[in-house]
Amino acid sequence: MDLRLLLIASLSVVLGGSWAQQEGSICTKASAQSCGECIQVAETCGWCSDENFLTVGQSKSARCDDLESLKKRKCAANKIENPRGSIAVNKDKPVTNRKDVAEKLKPEDITQIQPQKLTLTLRSGEPQTFQLKFKRAEDYPIDLYYLMDLSFSMRDDLENVKNLGTDLMEEMRKITSDFRIGFGSFVEKTVMPYISTTPARLLNPCTGNENCTSPFSYKNVLKLTEDGDEFNKLVSQQQISGNLDSPEGGFDAIMQVAVCEWLALKDIGWRNVTRLLVFSTDAGFHFAGDGKLGGIVLPNDGRCHLENNMYTMSHYYDYPSIAHLVQKLSDHNIQTIFAVTEEFQPVYKELKNLIPKSAVGTLSSNSSNVIKLILDAYNSLSSEVILENSKLPEGVSITYQSICKNGVESSGDNGRKCSNISIGDEVFFKISIESQKCPSHGKSEIIKIKPLGFTEEVEVVLNFICDCQCAAEGQPKSKKCSGGNGTFECGACKCNEGRIGLSCECSKDEVRTEDLDANCRKDNGTDICSNSGDCVCGICECKKRENPAEVYSGKYCECDNFNCDRSNNKLCGGHGRCECRKCICDANYTGSACDCSLDTSTCLAKNGQICNGRGTCDCGICKCTNPKFQGPTCETCPTCPGVCTEHKDCVQCRAFDAGPKKETCEQECSYFNLIKVSDRDKLPQPTDQSYPLTHCKERDANDCWFYYTYAIRNDTKEVYVVENLECPAGPDIIPIVAGVVAGIVLIGLALLLIWKLLMIIHDRREFAKFEKEKMNAKWDTGENPIYKSAVTTVVNPKYEGK
């Protein structure tokens, strides 16, 4: 049930509240069995708690519908359960205005975000929106920790950093009067293959005559302090070390700087103020997984492991992952400034995109520009505010809209941030939180919203509306529920386990299906609930339609409000309502489809008579009693002789200079005014005039038709005539002759082709017959009786063969 309700509620948010019919469909389709289930479907769904609300055949879930539908179905307003969400501000301390405060404030007394705590009561599908104000405070304290790579390639940079403390302190005093600085250094994990583990190399990892300190992973040289001279003194005592590979173990150091916050003798000394971490290096970095090269497989645990200001577990835990580092930096409100050389700018810019509230600056080869780099990066970071929130409970979503400097508004991902904020500027964020379902435990949840890099946060307590108020007033073991077999709440029975029915009157174990079904057949028929419902405990619960406005009803679901007669593709002609498959017509309408109007105003003629006294008004339309009359009010008689025949010759002679009266036209036909029009549509129409008008259609001697109207207006006779005759078109001789000739030629060609084809077929048959006889012929192999040899043999009579 929960998944189904969540799916439906999500759909309601997508469709929007403007689609009332679709929302109604969602409410009714959910088949909610209680008020609590109903209000989880969508914010537009309500539950009618009126005990007598349901009609015969309706199921309990019919109480759940959209609010407008419930009102139309006559549910009283005070019986509609529709709880709404709310917002309560619990802590609303104004943002600090330093102009109103003369003395120096402690960091915990400075407020930059307002309000600080709210309580939201959420109903599923209904967002609650509130506004946060952020103001960048003046003279806000800053803690800066300088974390430096002390591998051999940074030896020239160390010289320039030795005087960094006092110089940076002087510059930062221009921004804030409360500034502290600390220093730490890192090299690499102290195992192979990152460093050489030979005894000599462990003492001095550098080659040649260079004097270097033993390799180490991370060292907290100086916790945060206001003493710039102490910074210079301790940094001056530092020595360069060395390692074998190019990437360094800076991530181990960053993790320890972030998490070692307030542990005794181990802490960095961070306060709840603006926290800046300057990471200075000229090389890349190792990250999670690289420790396997040294046989280190345990993931970084994200805890502080400083002993005597040295990181002691570098050989035991792997490097942290980028995501792990991002989490810890965000949890501890640390803004990171990567001061790296030109060569590694692309790498650290990609890293910056993964770490919110971080900046990258180009470090000169000897770190001579480090102060300018820090100031530029700080100004860039502090001029941007980005909101983030803690993990949201399941089913809860949050959206942001920013109203930044000069009233610039943004939404979506950009709605979380504002840029180019100067000290004293105020920006606003509209935050909407929405729940799609009640949490399974039903308890309150707390989320926190804070600007990245700042210690202040807003606590938002979320309470969920999971049931209706009327449910708390339920009557357990109510007599209304079949003698105590359920709880009567919100106008309906909530049955105990094993009981079913609107009044919990049946037991699932005691009643057979056959007995129940018999009570659901009308007139002992075969159809259960008229095939339009389900038999539940011997009572028909009618099915629901796709369109929530269409419903089945009746004891056997034999009625509906959508199978009545239609007119103009509208149910009951749009002039009535459908009840039990019959139209109940509105006033002044009758008929099976309410398509017959009793209003006679449409049948009134210009003279005030109904149908000009020539017919009756039937359903708002004139039915002329004399078939020769026609028109909306029986005003036209196209076939009536008299007027048209009488004036035909005069109209013909004056309009077309033709006809029998052509010679005497001026003497006999000047008794009317003639007006010519271009086509028949321009002729006056009977409904357009308040005076008698006759339409005429006549034919001349050439079988051409002409159209005109004859009318008498203010004793003046007027004739409107179409200036063009409608004559039958004569035959076009040339195409006919050409067609006949072409037909004869084509027929001749066709006959020749047919003859040629027949001859070819005949010749092929004769040749085939010849070939067949040739193959079957049997020749005599004896001598030809008429053959005479060309050789004559002469025998010498004297020859004796000797």
TrEMBL record:
Signal peptide coordinates: 1-20
Residue intervals of the Integrin beta subunit VWA domain: 34-468
The keyword Transmembrane helix appears for this protein: yes
GO annotation (BP), single: muscle organ development
Family matches, as SUPFAM superfamilies: EGF/Laminin, Integrin beta tail domain, Integrin domains, Plexin repeat, vWA-like
Record-annotated Integrin beta subunit cytoplasmic domain positions: 756-802
Main location, first listed in the record: membrane
Transmembrane as UniProt keyword: yes
Domain Integrin beta subunit tail intervals: 644-732
InterPro entries: EGF_extracell, EGF_integrin_1, EGF_integrin_2, Integrin_beta_N, Integrin_bsu, Integrin_bsu_cyt_dom, Integrin_bsu_tail, Integrin_bsu_tail_dom_sf
Keywords: Calcium, Cell adhesion, Cell junction, Cell membrane, Cell projection, Disulfide bond, EGF-like domain, Glycoprotein, Integrin, Magnesium, Membrane, Metal-binding, Myogenesis, Phosphoprotein, Receptor, Repeat, Signal, Transmembrane, Transmembrane helix
One GO MF term: laminin binding
Transmembrane segments: 733-755
Gene Ontology CC terms: cell surface; focal adhesion; integrin complex; lamellipodium; melanosome; ruffle membrane; synapse
Residues in PSI domain copies: 26-76
Membrane topology: Single-pass type I membrane protein
Subcellular location: Cell membrane; Cell projection, Invadopodium membrane; Cell projection, Lamellipodium; Cell projection, Ruffle membrane
Disulfide links within the chain: 35-45, 38-75, 48-64, 206-212, 260-304, 438-696, 466-470, 481-493, 490-529, 495-504, 506-520, 535-540, 537-572, 542-557, 559-564, 578-583, 580-611, 585-594, 596-603, 617-622, 619-665, 624-634, 637-640, 644-653, 650-727, 669-704
Any Pfam family matching the protein: EGF_integrin
Family statement: Belongs to the integrin beta chain family.
PANTHER family: INTEGRIN BETA (PTHR10082:SF62), INTEGRIN BETA SUBUNIT (PTHR10082)
Record protein name field: Integrin beta
Record organism: Lates calcarifer
Taxonomic lineage: Eukaryota, Metazoa, Chordata, Craniata, Vertebrata
